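Hi F.,

I've been meaning to write this up properly since the lab meeting, where we talked about keeping a consistent format for the predictions we share between groups. The idea is simple: the sequence comes first, exactly as it goes in, then the structure tokens exactly as they come out, then a line or two of notes. No screenshots and no reformatting. I'm using this chain as the first example so we have something concrete to point to.
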Amino acid sequence: MGIITEFFELFGAAYLGDFSKFMFQSGAYTTCFYFTVGIPLLVTFVYYILLDHILLAQVRKWTIVGAVSAAVAAVVCMSIAYQRIKGFTFMQNITDADVTSADVLSFGFIVFVYAALLYVVLSVVLKSFSSRCRNIPF
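Output, unedited:
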């Protein structure tokens, strides 16, 4: 779990104080990691293997699909983070938690970037298994 925490905190560059502490203590980082990896993996697999349609063989549509999948991953992880921190602070009877919406948005942005990068990497790997979308994104 430590490497996953470092992954989301950008190896110490994006430590968000109480937010990061409560995320670690509640175990939310692991759940968010699964969604950050799983959503782009599922979307890329569906795009290149299951659908593999000529109408999807455009860079613009590939970009939209990637941006939407990264946004979905970010929103899901922000929701998980908010709910887990809220539940953890309630269960531990912590009233002075210094967690702001800016912390949650910063975390969402980090998830968005990771999910988008993973989508690009998986596209490069999975496009060779596609017959119609083989030339997308490049």
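Notes:
The chain has five helices and no strands.
Residues 59-91 form the longest helix (33 residues).

If this format works for you, I'll send the rest the same way.

G.
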